[in-house]
Amino acid sequence: MTSHPRTGFEHEYPFPSKFIELDGLRYHYVDEGRGEALLCVHGNPTWSFAWRNLIKGLSREYRVIAVDHIGCGFSDKPQHYDYTLARHIDNLSRFIAALDLNRVTLLAHDWGGAIGLGAATRMPERFARYVLFNTAAFRSRRIPLRIAVCRWPLLGLLGVRGLNLFARAALRMAVCRHERMTAPVRAGYLAPYGNWSDRVAILRFVQDIPMTTSHPSYQTLVDLEGSLPAIADRPMLFVWGERDWCFTPAFLDEFLRRFPRAKALRLPAAGHYVFEDAHEEIIPFVREFLRGHPIDGA
Asked: What domains, with CATH codes, occur in the chain?
């Protein structure tokens, strides 16, 4: 397969593209380094580009794999597709099986937390450690207004898909250190979402937030929440930008209530895109966590 054009951000994201096929669709990923597998799972409206600094920093010692969900990044973007939490979990599970990944450390952010943990609780024997960044995997009654309005039928359609407002706004609202959002970084985040068709999954992710019991993804989230105790004995690290207005520190507190043995790196000057605001602090902390929790038999 040939790589997608990377005009304007080629130095930020220099990794060769790889693909597997899922039901006739190309599922894109990057695979850098050798050794124990670190699997990076992004959220919305990002893609594997968000992990680039961690890939560069950790692939010297580990095999770092970062996927793009169907509809995101350099993966195919079908217009009529089951863009639900259950489908994304199934896709990631099939990817893990296809690459025969074992003793995996999950790194997940935003929607990637529910998707990654969904796969991990489905095949726990393949996972060894967890590093979670500003995410959730349980029900919440809270949805920020600025996200809720994107679910309104007309505004969501025109704003998110027509004007790319969700992805563009995140470049400011999800970071605290705005000087880091240089032209190449902004270009990288926006590159896969250049037109109406390319933005289908961004809107569908927003619509897939299950706020009522009748929502198609509500039961999937309930089942995931119920399965979390099964992984409570595994080493777990939470990395949290405390100035995140979406996944606030209250979500971290709930995770720590459920996983009292977990470690936490609280970053009071970082926002939702915590890997942009604080990757220099995150990389050595994650490396220390991994070294401090060696995998049996590795």
From this structure: 18-292 (3.40.50.1820)
